[in-house]
DNA sequence: CGGGATCCGTAAAGATACTG
DNA sequence: CAGTATCTTTACGGATCCCG
């Protein structure tokens, strides 16, 4: 358990003992991103089984990365420790390294609309939307089969954004028709939202203000090194 | 193999796919430290099996971290790629984080003279020794049983340092009698060589010049944040 | 529904021996 | 020296079930 036993005199080896077990760094990312509850973390780390999440959280607690906390209502939760917080910049640097070095073409050849939407969901900045109201954005990927074509992001300031795969039957504030590759590329920071719009790979119809403030609320991957107006590498299909 | 399949839109997840498999980062450390040959890497990464090293090197090559090279004599070898070199500062930061945060008391309660000597061996700076000659340093840990008490470092400038567990029958230039905990603490950078000497936990007898230049050739863990004259936390047993 | 525990089949990792 | 081949052990991942 605690003695996977690399060379105990090499700090890197000690670090590996802690961060190497599968999912550990991703759980840490989720915690850093604000998740506290078990199922909240689980939603943020797609693919992990509850069994393994439970196990990892215990290991991480034992290693001093995570602390169990009880809310005033007695509800359980998890937070990062100071030690884990010190690790954040390292993980950030790791993400930037990966973003710089991972083959874009390979990534853009393995497209997945649902996963993309799930990721975007987590990065929508709801504070940019009018408070007290619900903002609904409908995404349409015309190239996909009907069952995978439409997605709805339902956002209220102060609440987590909902992703709907079925029509939520709510008034839509903004329709976005997108080429999947272009949307992926823009979201990953390999091109820009504006360049995809200019080349008609992204078409926005609806609330003018939402369109004008697009870059404010559709926050791109935080690992992108360059700002939003960087050069686009390539775009539509 | 390549599709352990975390979330493919999260750069950290992509990075984890690459660096998470056991031993990967330690192999990278060895390569960065100058190892090129298979068995050279293997010696530098204590505990790895040849099977796994072979497998990892292939995976790392496929991920773009490692490049196979043939020397002019046709001998096989491995080097890091530019992508791997960019990762070096991240690994360095990871090591510093671990060095800062890992429990010293716990580490100092699991002492291992042989592993310590093996680690020191790799960090001896032979360029500080007189060129063309062989310098032999004998370590004695009086507290240990006879079979684990004595170690010899045999160094020649320009060559890797040898660690002997049996008397090499060569003239000894410097005798070091040490308390194991103190030697470990000093080497890890949790105390200083001088403070351990002052408290008699380290006793050096032999070549005056070697003793005077001790800090020059006995290089401490490169992950220690503070310089050699930092405050000692604690020392002998 | 949140927060797990149990069981089981598969996929890695570890130990050892052996070969070109 | 530079690896392969083989075998055993451990970890992971999936499904199911339990409890408040």
Task: Furnish the topology, listing elements before pairings.
2 copies of one chain form a homodimer.
Chain A lengths: L10 H9 L4 H9 L5 H7 L5 H13 L3 E5 L5 E5 L1 H20 L2 H4 L5 H11 L11 E6 L5 H4 E6 L6 E3 L9 E5 L1 H8 L5 H6 L3 E5 L1 H5 L1 H4 L20
Parallel strand pairs in A: 3-6
Antiparallel strand pairs in A: 1-2, 3-4, 4-5, 6-7
Chain B binds a DNA duplex (20 and 20 nucleotides) through helix 3 and helix 4.
Count of runs of 4 or more consecutive helical residues of chain A = 12
On the 0 to 100 scale, the average pLDDT of chain A is 87
Q: Largest beta sheet of chain A: what is the strand line-up?
A: 5-4-3-6-7
Biggest interface and its residues per chain? A-B, 50 and 50 residues
What does this 3D model show about the protein?
The structure is a homodimer of 237-residue chains. Chain A has 237 residues and is an alpha+beta fold. In chain A, 42% of the residues lie in helices and 15% in strands. The first copy, chain A, has twelve helices and seven strands. Chain A has a five-stranded mixed β-sheet. Chain A has a two-stranded antiparallel ribbon with strand order 1-2. In chain A, a hairpin with a 6-residue loop joins strand 4 and strand 5 (162-164). In chain A, helix 2 (24-32) packs across helix 5 (82-101). The longest helix of chain A is centred in the middle third of the chain and has 20 residues, at 82-101. Chain A starts with 10 loop residues before the first helix and ends in a 20-residue tail after the last helix. The structure holds a DNA duplex (20 and 20 nucleotides).
């Amino acid at each position: 358990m605690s003695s996977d036993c690399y060379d105990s005199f090499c700090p890197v080896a000690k670090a590996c003992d802690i961060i190497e077990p599968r999912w550990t760094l991703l759980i840490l990312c989720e915690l850093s991103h604000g998740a506290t509850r078990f199922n909240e973390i689980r939603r943020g780390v797609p693919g992990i089984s509850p069994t393994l999440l439970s196990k990892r959280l215990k290991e991480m607690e034992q290693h001093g990365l995570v602390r169990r906390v009880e809310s005033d209502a007695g509800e359980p939760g998890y937070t990062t420790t100071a030690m884990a917080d010190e690790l954040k910049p390292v993980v950030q640097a790791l993400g930037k390294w990966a973003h710089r070095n991972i083959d874009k073409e390979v990534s853009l050849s393995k497209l997945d609309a649902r996963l993309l939407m799930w990721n975007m969901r987590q990065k929508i900045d709801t504070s940019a939307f009018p408070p007290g109201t619900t903002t609904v954005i409908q995404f349409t990927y015309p190239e996909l089969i009907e069952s995978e074509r439409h997605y709805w992001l339902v956002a209220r300031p102060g609440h987590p954004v909902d992703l709907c795969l079925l029509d939520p039957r709510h008034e839509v504030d903004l329709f976005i028709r997108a080429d999947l590759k272009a949307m992926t590329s823009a979201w990953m920071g390999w091109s820009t939202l504006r360049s995809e719009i200019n080349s008609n790979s992204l078409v926005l119809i609806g609330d003018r203000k939402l369109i004008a403030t697009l870059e404010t609320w559709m926050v791109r991957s935080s690992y992108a090194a360059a700002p939003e107006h960087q050069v686009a590498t390539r775009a539509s299909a």
